């Protein structure tokens, strides 16, 4: 099969198409003929050599989400048959014509979605569900601040939380990105380059603060995050792009009874990811099938142009998802 391989740690040009043998499936896995693969920021970190894949994942083929057709099933697989159209979360190896997936991590492509659309879903939908709704227990009526509102994660969090009855605020780095976030359902998008987000949240919530923050930024955002959380607020970290060493006012944590937590999805066990898949199937897939939540695709590249796709992601010019096509 053809695969996009990280030939050495480095810039986008290290991504090269090579011939590799097809993965061999275990009894509880399916083999998917990949039609499209989503690109995520963690793929960029892996390409640069800063994010080693977990045990069992391919060492040099990136890719955390795919959509395609099942080409083979292990002899203990019960849910799927050859020919089923699925999308799936994987721990690596998505930038390839074939990919092996634990059966529990597959979902049917919702509604009449194309493979490109379906491939844009798993990584951000699993991450947002797991952090915001399972870990953070966001309740209907509560407010959520999402940093990086125009990111793949951001556009998912805006739509999912809005659809489930939450008021969503976001930060983004341009007025154009802010406008798109509001069109997707955000109550207010704050341009962090021209406004202090923490002060803005204070004003927008009449001094109460937000119930939850989904944060991928960390670093110097952290004191502002702590300051604009409400009583019993939850700060949920999924990355720390502006630094992991921070100083915080612990008195505020105690006074407001805050919870600071976070998680990393990729290295979690199959059972954990499969449980998220079943929750998404029940609570979110119907909203995708009805069009209440929509995939946000910014660009699609042929697989051979994976380097161009990574260059775009690193430029920060995109809103939503960038996809590789293998068709
Ligand atoms: N923990 C987990 O399990 C998990 C899983 C998936 C993803 N993630 C993390 O979630 C984040 C989003 O992933 P993605 O694939 O959706 O990425 P993405 O689409 O490339 O988005 C990254 C976003 O970060 C913002 N940004 C970048 N540098 C910034 C800075 N210095 N200050 C403020 N904002 C900044 C950009 O927005 P502007 O252009 O508006 O600045 C951009 O929208 C990544 O950090 C990724 O590592 C974590």
Mind explaining what this structure looks like?
- This protein has 327 residues and is of the alpha/beta class.
- The chain has two domains: 2-121 and 266-325, Alpha-Beta Complex (Quinone Oxidoreductase, Chain A, domain 1), CATH 3.90.180; 125-262, Rossmann fold.
- It contains eleven helices and 15 strands.
- The chain has helices at residues 41-47, 115-119, 122-135, 152-163, 175-183, 197-204, 222-227, 250-255, 270-283, 285-289, 306-315, and strands spanning 2-6, 15-19, 29-39, 65-73, 85-89, 98-102, 106-108, 143-146, 167-172, 188-191, 210-215, 229-237, 259-262, 297-302, 321-325.
- The strands form three sheets. Strands 3, 4, 5, 6, 7, 14 and 15 form a seven-stranded mixed sheet that branches. It has a six-stranded parallel sheet with strand order 10-9-8-11-12-13, with helices on both faces.
- Helix 8 (250-255) links the parallel strand 12 (229-237) and strand 13.
- The longest helix is centred in the middle third of the chain and has 14 residues, at 122-135.
- The radius of gyration is 19 Å and the shape is globular.
- The mean pLDDT is 97.
- Bound molecules: NADP nicotinamide-adenine-dinucleotide phosphate.
- The site of NADP nicotinamide-adenine-dinucleotide phosphate has 24 residues, from helix 1, helix 3 and helix 4.
